[in-house]
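Exercise 7.
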Amino acid sequence: MEISEAQYRRIEPILPRQRGNVSMSNLTVLNAILYVAEQGCKWRGLPKRFGNWHTIYTRMNRWAKSGVLDSIFEKLQREQIVRIKIEAVSLDSTIVKVHPDGTGALKKTDRRPSASPVADGPPRFIWLPRMLERP
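Solution. The predicted structure, written as tokens, is:
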């Protein structure tokens, strides 16, 4: 799923203007993002023809934070250049293992005294101070 130069010109006005010493065009970055979305691969799995995966990821992250990526996908859908179906994935809690300490259960050693000391019963130990030497 790659867009051509003519299709790119239709959505180019909503993309940020490239300034300075830029090694990769917005079209290449956009095609790489579409490749990852279509294939479901990791960023490191991008083919070498797209260039450095970290550069693409960094630019995509900036676009996502600033809202540019949402407007790109909206414009691609509206112009009927690319049809995208966004799906959500959820995890059932029965497949996620939790350590016993992370469940929030009370520890067995945790003693909770009640409001009245009489309800707690007699103390379980007696403190007897002893003198070892006589003055």
